[in-house]
């Protein structure tokens, strides 16, 4: 790994620490969003030695240094994901010959997906404060430096947003419950701005298959009983699909795009489009939903 790759990975780990905190505090309206971190069990203010991304959690065995209460591995996973995105962004930029703007855009896209996935996983919420700026950033990047250009980027975002909103609204009217959350619609529109039509189709396929694999794994382990009302958040799986499709680059997407779109549609039909949200203990939070 190059020095730049190491730097971006370390930067990602630091950002991942903030993303985990963001996911823990923001959606439930805590006033101390930017306050000092504390142990939820004993209330002790955490010091720098407790907050070294990944290292502190591993060194302390996933427990508070003072009271020994367990600290969720969720935070370490988010930090690791953000670090991996930082390193991958450098590799993608080098392979494609992207300049500084391309590297920055790639990292921003990936890190935004990590933040959104973390929030959705914890609270089944994809906030407009992140999805809409991501949409604007995608349009700006493709309009100024990206291979798609602004017209195709904007058209894909518009078709994805309007089309999926119509699908979600139709399902609501037909079944009387949500089948796709509006946060997911906005994230897909943002993904369309970044990826274009073929890339978005492939992302939807990958996200759907990842969601199905997760459900199957939990069901196989006896930790999930699948029924017509089984619920999981779609955002994390959609984020995986969007990042994977982006990492593959434009050439494979041009080949795989039409087939990916058809396969994604088939996967959606096979799942019957029903609401799915993992229990989070935050019943007031808006639901981010998966086709299931």
Automatic annotation (TrEMBL):
The catalysed reaction is: Typically cleaves a -Gly-|-Phe- bond to release an N-terminal, basic peptide of 5-8 residues from type IV prepilin, and then N-methylates the new N-terminal amino group, the methyl donor being S-adenosyl-L-methionine
User: What's in the keyword line of the UniProt record?
Assistant: Cell inner membrane, Cell membrane, Hydrolase, Membrane, Methyltransferase, Multifunctional enzyme, Protease, Transferase, Transmembrane, Transmembrane helix
Q: Mention any Pfam family matching this sequence.
A: Peptidase_A24
EC nos: 2.1.1.-, 3.4.23.43
Q: What is the lineage of its organism?
A: Bacteria, Pseudomonadati, Pseudomonadota, Alphaproteobacteria, Rhodothalassiales
Q: What is this protein called?
A: Prepilin leader peptidase/N-methyltransferase
Which species is the source of this protein?
Rhodothalassium salexigens DSM 2132
Task: Report the subcellular localization.
Answer: Cell inner membrane; Cell membrane
Where in the numbering of this chain does the Prepilin peptidase A24 N-terminal domain appear?
Answer: 11-90
Q: What does this protein do?
A: Plays an essential role in type IV pili and type II pseudopili formation by proteolytically removing the leader sequence from substrate proteins and subsequently monomethylating the alpha-amino group of the newly exposed N-terminal phenylalanine.
Any one Gene Ontology MF annotation carried by this entry is:
aspartic-type endopeptidase activity
């Amino acid at each position: 790994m190059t020095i730049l790759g190491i730097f971006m990975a370390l930067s990602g780990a630091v950002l991942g620490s903030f993303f985990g905190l963001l996911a823990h505090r923001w959606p439930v309206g805590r006033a101390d969003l930017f306050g000092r971190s504390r142990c939820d069990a004993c209330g002790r203010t955490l010091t720098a030695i407790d907050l070294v991304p990944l290292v502190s959690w591993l060194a302390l065995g996933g427990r508070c240094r003072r009271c020994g209460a367990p600290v969720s591995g969720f935070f370490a996973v988010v930090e690791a994901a953000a670090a991996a995105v930082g390193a991958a962004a450098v590799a993608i930029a080098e392979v494609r010959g992207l300049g500084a703007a391309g590297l920055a855009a790639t990292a921003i896209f990936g890190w935004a997906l990590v933040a959104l996935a973390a929030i959705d996983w914890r609270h089944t919420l994809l906030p407009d404060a992140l999805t809409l700026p991501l949409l604007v950033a995608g349009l700006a990047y493709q309009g100024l430096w990206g291979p798609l250009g602004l017209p195709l980027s904007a058209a894909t975002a518009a078709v994805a947003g309007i089309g999926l909103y119509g699908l979600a609204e139709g399902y609501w009217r037909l079944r009387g419950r949500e089948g796709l959350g509006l946060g997911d619609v906005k994230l897909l529109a943002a993904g369309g701005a970044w990826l274009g039509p073929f890339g978005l189709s492939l992302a939807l396929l990958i996200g759907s298959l990842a969601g199905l694999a997760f459900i199957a794994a939990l069901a196989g382990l006896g930790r999930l009983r699948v029924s017509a009302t089984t619920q999981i958040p779609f955002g994390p799986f959609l984020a995986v699909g969007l990042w994977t499709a982006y990492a593959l680059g434009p050439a494979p997407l041009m080949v795989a795009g039409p087939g990916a779109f058809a396969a994604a549609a088939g996967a959606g039909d096979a799942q019957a489009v029903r609401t799915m949200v993992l229990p989070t203990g935050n019943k007031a939070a808006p639901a981010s939903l998966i086709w299931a």
